[in-house]
Every structure is written in C-alpha cells, then in structure tokens.
Model the fold of this input.
Amino acid sequence: MSRESLLGYRLEDLEQVARDNGLSAFRGRQIARWIYLRRASDFGEMTDLPGAAREELALRYTITGAQVRGHWTGSGGAAEKYLVGFPDGAAVETVLMRYRHGDTLCLSTQVGCAYGCPFCASGADGLVRDLSVEEILAQWYLVQRSLDPLGDRVSRLVYMGSGEPLANYDAVVRSLRLFNSAEGPAIGSRRMTLSTVGVVPGIRALAEESMQVTLAISLHAPNDYLRSQIVPINRRYPLGQLLSAARHYANRTGRRVSFEYAMIRGINDHPDLARELAILLEDTPCHVNLIRFNPVQSSSWEGSDDRSIEQFRDVLSLSGIAVTVRRSIGDDIEGACGQLRRRFGED
Done:
C-alpha cells in the first residue's frame, strides 16, 4: 500500500491527520513543526509524539516521496543545481543561487512546459504534467535539508524553473500560501517572485489573492510582431491585454511589476526597440530586468554583447524606466535563466 505524503499539508490538514489517528489536534501542530521547521525525514525523529503514534503514522504516511537524484555546483559555488525525482519517474531541476543578501531557490512548477518559447529549454519536449503542491514544496524541503548542517537558509523563492506557474494555478497558489504561513517555512510574500510568459487570466486572478508576491513577466519585445516570434502565447494574449493585466496587478497589490527582457543578439537588442519599450511601459509601475540570453540547445540565437546591453539600458534609464542588468549565474551547469529542462538519466 502506498503511503500518503504529508509535505504540502497546511496546519489544519495536519490537525485533521492527527484527529484521524486518534490524537489531539495539538499533535498536528507538532507534526507541522517537525516537517517545516526541523525538516524531519521520518516520523521516528518526532520525539515529542508518543511512540505508538509515530509507528502508526509511519504505516500510513511519509514526509515526501521525492529524492535528490543529481547535484551540480557551478559559478564558483554561487549556483547549485539539483535534480529532484518523484516516485513516478518524473524529475525536475531546481537551482539554488547564493547572493550576499541570502540564498534564493528557483522552483519548477511543471514537468516540461506547453508554451514552446524558443528562448527557453523547459518546453523543448512539451508538457508532461503539473507538479502537485507536495512536489513544489519538496524542492525547497530537499535543498533546505542540505543547507541545514551549514546553518544556511533559503530566504527567497522565485517560481522561474521549468513550467508556467499560472498554468498550474491552484497548486502554485496553495504552495505560495504554505511557504508564507507562520506554521510553514514562513518566507515573506515580498521575498517570493512568480514568473509568467503572460497568461493574462492567471495574472488577473492572482491580483485578487491578496498576496504581496512580486509578479515577473517575460516580455522580451516591445511590439506584438516581434514578441509573437519570441513568446508564442502573445498571439493569444497580445501586449495590450498583457499590459492592462500588469497594471491591474500593480494597482491591486501596490507592487510594481518586473519585466524580464532576454537580450538576444540582432533580434531584440537595437536601441530603437529600447525607445519603443520605454513608450510601451511609461504608464505601468514597473522595473525592467535585462538578461543576456543564455544559449539553449533548441535555439540558434546568441546573447547580446556588453555594449548592446549597455546602450539598451541607457536608453531605458534616460527615458525614466527603472532598469537593471541582471547578472546571470549557473550557466556552466545549465542552471541559468531559460536553461532548466526536463531531464533524467542524461548526465
């Protein structure tokens, strides 16, 4: 008989588990602390629960069925990529990025991706399936367990791994709330960023969730003709609809929107396009992140050179647009922006 995983359960769910097993609801709070604060790997570690209860729980439940199946370190130790595998044989990649201000974890939300953006490796093999709440949480849980002996802590989360978060809406929102909960990992909403290629209904729905999560939109072009080539979903939700949804999100949450712009040599990096972008964004509370395109096997595109990126940045800055050139780390382990993919047994 397969055992049910408890990782991803909210406090009230764990209280119900306790009651279902003849225990007081208070025991559910103890189980939550052992899972989310102490990262227990099995019920035997939960020493403040009665021994008989631990044995009974172990027969019916497990913490998680996920396992680390591969681990690579790159960028001089600034990036670590983990291959996280699940009992059905599926696997996703998640990346830990180490900065002076703390450790950031890049989470995947789907196995593969259905949106087929040519700048991103995640959709090269199409969508396999959504991840459950447990499988999203498992990426954090396994990485955090590896950091615990070092005294380090994941302090920021970015939903920028494989998959489109807003296409797995319910599981992603539940994971955001659990990560933020006081009984869970207690990561502040403002320390979580959700990235989307521009699923307009999802953006509008997320605006009503009363969360302070940063919204990052993969923009990559200032007009519909060019963006439709780089981000195919633009044919369904063109820039007019996307910018309207972005402004709605900013107005509802009081949070400015981040626009991600992958700088692709000879494709979207001309200064005239920067001027067009500045006009497009002038009425939207936002910040633009310029990212040198990271080569992927499925594309012949190349990243822009430093001079082109600097010129593009200067045009935006002089036009009053907040802009940053984002440092890319992890490209030597294929863990940089756009490089995560579905792989298992390939390395």
User: Anything to note?
Assistant: The mean pLDDT is 92. The chain has two domains: 4-62, 67-333. The first helix runs from residue 11 to 20. Residues 4-62 form a domain with the DNA polymerase; domain 1 fold (CATH 1.10.150.530).
